[in-house]
Design a protein that fits this description.
Blueprint lengths: L9 H14 L16 H14 L9 E5 L3 E3 L20 E6 L2 E10 L2 H16 L9 H10 L7 E3 L27 E3 L6 H14 L1 H4 L8 H19 L1
Parallel strand pairs: 3-5
Antiparallel strand pairs: 1-4, 2-6, 3-4
Helix pairs in contact: 2-3, 3-4
Length: 241
């Protein structure tokens, strides 16, 4: 929430505050750059992660969710933990989504763990140790490369984009799996022009039709969809082993 991602994105941030109040989530706000460019994302996340890891395990946060400033919670009734893997899948440490460009790390879930410390550290060091590699989306591309690394791949899972990284509806119906629907938790204005204006307009739209967007988890198709998803992941892992 700084520079071009500052005051123009405040309506979106208000929706995150509301969700945090409903579910008692702490929020950590990045309100100034730490290092150059978008690499500040992983740096800020690593700082929070190390702070949590320094605590006794019993009082640590279990997961962190990164969300870009241009994300709007359209259904704060959905608890973030609804999407987490079941306890028997404790080897999964990262939940991400992808679109037509590959990984989109505007929103992702990261387990508080030593694995995550190593993962973020490797992303931040990527340009130093592989300076000749092209990273078209800077830190996002570095994260995608690390997800493909055999040291990390088995602990990373791509989940359906509409779980927590939906996009505004476009004209191309073949991209429906990315488009926000009523009842979805979050909307991400990735690649949208004049984002402050568009965010404010959508914020007003959702506020005026709150009863149509804010649907309790039990009245959505998410519980069944999530259960089936993790069941399939579990079966695939058993088959591979």
């Amino acid at each position: 929430m700084h520079g071009k991602y500052g005051s123009g994105h405040l309506p979106a941030f208000d929706t995150h505050l509301r969700q945090s109040e409903i579910h008692h989530y702490p929020i950590f706000v990045l309100d100034r750059p730490i290092i150059d460019g978008l690499w500040t994302k992983e740096t800020a996340l690593l700082a929070v992660l190390l702070h949590e890891m320094s605590k006794p395990e019993a009082i640590r946060l279990r997961w962190l969710m990164w969300f870009d400033a241009d994300t709007l919670v359209v259904n704060p009734l959905i608890p973030v933990e609804s999407f987490l893997p079941t306890h028997d899948l404790d080897g999964i440490n990262l939940l991400v989504t992808e679109d037509w460009n590959g990984l989109n790390n505007g929103v992702f879930l990261l387990r508080v763990s030593a694995w995550s410390v190593n993962f973020l550290t490797n992303i931040l060091s990527y340009p130093t140790y592989k300076p000749d590699e092209d990273l078209p989306f800077t830190e996002q591309s570095a994260m995608e490369r690390m997800i493909q690394d055999p040291r990390y791949a088995s602990a990373c899972i791509y989940v359906p984009p509409r779980w927590f990284n939906s996009y505004p509806r476009g004209e191309d119906e073949s991209w429906n799996k990315y488009h926000v629907e009523r009842g979805d938790m979050m909307l991400h204005f990735a690649g949208v022009g004049d984002r402050p204006r568009v965010i404010r307009a959508f914020y007003n739209h959702v506020a005026s039709e709150r009863e149509k967007w804010e649907i309790p988890l039990s009245k959505t198709l998410l519980p069944e969809e999530i259960a089936d998803f993790w069941k399939n992941v579990r079966m695939q892992r058993v088959t591979k082993s």
